[in-house]
Inverse folding.
C-alpha cells in the first residue's frame, strides 16, 4: 500500500474520533511547551549572568585576600587581609602581559550635596579601574595617576548617585561631602545596570584608593586587586606569574596554603553559570516527564483503537493487505498525533516564555536547539509508544479478526 493512501486512512481514522485525538495530543502539547519554556527561562538566566560577568571587563583576573579553603571566597573574601601596597606596586612593575591593576577599597558612607544626603557605596580604586571594567564616562574625565599619588579629593559618580544628589543637573564640577571630607566631582560614569546579586552598580562613588584609605577607612591593606591581561591567550600565564610573585613576597613555603586567592573571569563565569545550567537541566527533565506521560497516552489510545477496529483490520488482511501495511497505518497514526502535538507545543512554549518575560520580568531566551530537541523527542515518543500497538495490529489473525464482535 502506497504511503499517501496510508496517510489518508490514518487522517480519516483520527478525524473519526476528533475529541479523543485532541485529548491524546494534549499530553505532547504540554510536554513540548513545558520543555521549551523552562529551557528558555534557564537560558535567559544563564545569558543574564554571562552579561553581568562580562560587565566586569575583558580578560580580568581577581586577586582576593585570604584563602578560599579557610572561608575567604565562599562567604566573604578579605576577612584575612594579606594584600599590601607593596604587593600592588610589585604587580605593576614585575608582571608582564597586563594593561592595568587596581586595588579595591570599599566603604559605605554618607554622601551629601546641598540638601540631599544619602548612604551609598564608596569604592577606592586606581586610575586603571575604568579601563579594567570597560566603564566609560558619560561626562567629565577620569581622575589621574597624580590624583592617586597625592590622595586628592576627587570623585566619579554613578548615574543613580548623581541623579539622587543633583537631579537633572550636571554634577561635574560640583562638590560632595563624603563623611567629613569635601570631594570635587570630576566625572559622571555611564550606566552599568544591575549586578549579579541584584545590586545597583550605578549607586556608587569612585575615589582614588589613597584618598579612601586615608580619609574614609583607615585601612592599610586591600581586600582585592583587579588585574587586566593584555589578551585572552595570556590570562593563564599572567595568573601563574601573579601566584609565583605573591608566594615569594609573602614567604609562603612549598606545600603551604596561599594567603590569597586568584580567580580568572572565565572561572568566575563558569562558577556563576553552573547553578543555572543545573537548574535548566533539572527543569527540562521534569518537563520531559510530561512528554513520557503523553507517549503513554498515545499507546493507550492506539491499543484501544486496535481493539475497536479489529474487524476492519481483519477485512484488510483478508483482501490482501500485508502485515507491514497495517503496521505502517497504525504507526503513522501515532506519529501524526505526536507531530501535531509537537507543533502546537512549540507555539505554546514560545508564547509561554514570552508571557513569563512580559508578566514577571524574567529573562527568557528561546533557542533553536531546545525547539529541535523537544520536537524530535515528541516524534520519537510517537514512534516508540506507537510501535507496540501497531505491531499488535499487524499480527492479528485475519480469521479471528473477522469473527471478533
Amino acid at each position: 500500500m502506497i504511503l499517501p493512501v496510508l496517510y489518508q486512512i490514518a487522517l480519516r481514522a483520527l478525524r473519526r474520533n476528533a475529541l479523543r485525538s485532541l485529548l491524546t495530543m494534549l499530553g505532547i502539547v504540554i510536554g513540548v511547551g513545558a520543555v521549551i519554556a523552562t529551557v528558555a527561562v534557564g537560558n535567559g538566566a544563564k545569558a543574564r549572568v554571562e552579561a553581568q560577568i562580562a560587565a566586569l571587563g575583558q580578560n580580568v583576573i581577581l586577586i582576593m585576600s585570604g584563602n578560599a579553603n579557610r572561608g575567604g571566597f565562599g562567604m566573604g573574601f578579605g576577612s584575612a587581609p594579606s594584600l599590601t601596597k607593596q604587593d600592588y606596586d610589585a604587580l605593576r612593575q614585575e608582571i608582564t602581559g597586563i594593561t592595568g591593576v587596581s586595588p579595591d577599597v570599599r566603604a559605605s558612607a554618607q554622601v551629601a550635596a546641598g540638601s540631599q544626603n544619602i548612604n551609598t557605596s564608596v569604592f577606592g580604586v586606581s586610575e586603571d579601574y575604568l579601563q579594567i571594567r570597560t566603564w566609560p564616562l558619560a561626562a567629565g574625565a577620569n581622575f589621574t595617576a597624580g590624583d592617586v599619588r597625592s590622595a586628592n579629593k576627587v570623585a566619579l559618580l554613578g548615574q543613580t548617585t548623581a541623579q539622587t544628589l543633583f537631579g537633572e543637573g550636571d554634577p561635574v564640577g560640583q562638590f560632595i561631602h563624603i563623611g567629613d571630607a569635601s570631594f570635587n566631582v570630576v566625572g559622571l560614569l555611564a550606566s552599568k545596570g544591575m549586578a549579579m546579586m541584584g545590586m545597583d552598580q550605578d549607586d556608587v562613588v569612585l575615589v582614588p584608593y589613597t584618598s579612601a584609605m586615608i580619609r574614609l577607612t583607615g585601612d592599610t591593606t586591600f581586600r582585592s586587586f583587579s588585574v587586566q591581561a593584555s589578551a585572552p591567550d595570556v590570562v593563564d600565564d599572567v595568573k601563574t606569574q601573579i601566584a609565583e610573585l605573591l608566594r615569594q613576597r609573602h614567604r609562603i613555603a612549598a606545600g603551604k596554603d596561599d594567603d590569597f586567592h586568584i580567580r580568572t573571569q572565565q572561572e568566575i563565569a563558569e562558577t556563576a553559570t553552573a547553578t543555572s545550567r543545573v537548574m535548566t537541566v533539572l527543569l527540562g527533565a521534569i518537563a520531559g516527564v510530561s512528554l513520557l506521560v503523553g507517549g503513554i497516552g498515545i499507546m493507550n489510545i492506539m491499543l484501544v483503537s486496535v481493539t475497536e477496529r479489529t474487524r476492519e483490520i481483519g477485512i484488510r488482511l483478508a483482501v490482501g493487505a500485508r502485515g507491514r501495511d497495517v503496521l505502517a497505518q497504525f504507526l503513522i497514526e501515532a506519529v501524526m498525533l505526536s507531530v501535531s502535538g509537537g507543533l502546537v507545543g512549540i507555539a505554546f512554549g514560545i508564547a509561554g516564555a514570552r508571557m513569563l518575560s512580559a508578566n514577571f520580568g524574567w529573562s527568557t531566551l528561546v533557542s533553536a536547539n531546545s525547539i529541535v530537541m523537544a520536537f524530535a523527542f515528541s516524534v520519537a515518543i510517537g514512534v516508540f509508544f506507537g510501535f507496540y500497538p501497531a505491531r499488535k495490529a499487524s499480527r492479528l489473525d485475519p480469521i479471528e479478526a473477522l469473527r471478533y464482535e
